[in-house]
Amino acid sequence: MLCQPGEGRERLTEGIYLPTSKEEPLGRLERALALTSATAHLEAKLEAARREGRLPRGGDPLEAGLAAGLLEPAEAEALQEAARARRDAIEVDAFSPEIYFAPRKGQEQPALE
């Protein structure tokens, strides 16, 4: 219920601060949810075409969908934007090994093997 926009989610999250800025982690997550929900029907269309053999397995499904006439360029761009938003939301806490393994106050430097 919380993973899909709708009345139930609105009711459960009423009064919770939901930032709209994609600079804030929760804002990134909300943006990814909105874009993914808005393009779910396009993902389903590509998956159905793949199952029916109208699109090849493997390769770039967006390029194949465009070439087969299943997607309009604007739809492919919307899918790409949703994928970028999901990646951005997932990478919120991505750190380089140097930063991740850096000593914290009062700790020794761990040995990297």
Features of this protein?
113 residues; mainly alpha; 5 helices
Compact description:
55% of the residues lie in helices and 0% in strands.
Description:
- This protein is 55% helix and 0% strand.
- With 113 residues, it is mainly α.
- The protein is flat and about 60 Å long.
The major β-sheet equals:
none
- Give the integer mean of the pLDDT values: 85
> From the helix content, strand content and strand pairing, which structural class follows?
mainly alpha
State the helicity in percent bands.
Answer: 40-55%
**Low-confidence segments:** none
Q: How many β-strand stretches?
A: 0
Oligomer: single chain
Contiguous helical run count? 5
Order of helices and strands: HHHHH
Radius of gyration: 20 Å
What general form does the structure show? flat
* N-end to C-end Cα span: 44 Å
What proportion strand?
A: under 5%
Describe the secondary structure blueprint for this structure.
Blueprint: H1 7-12, H2 25-51, H3 61-67, H4 73-90, H5 97-100
Helix pairs in contact: 2-4, 3-4
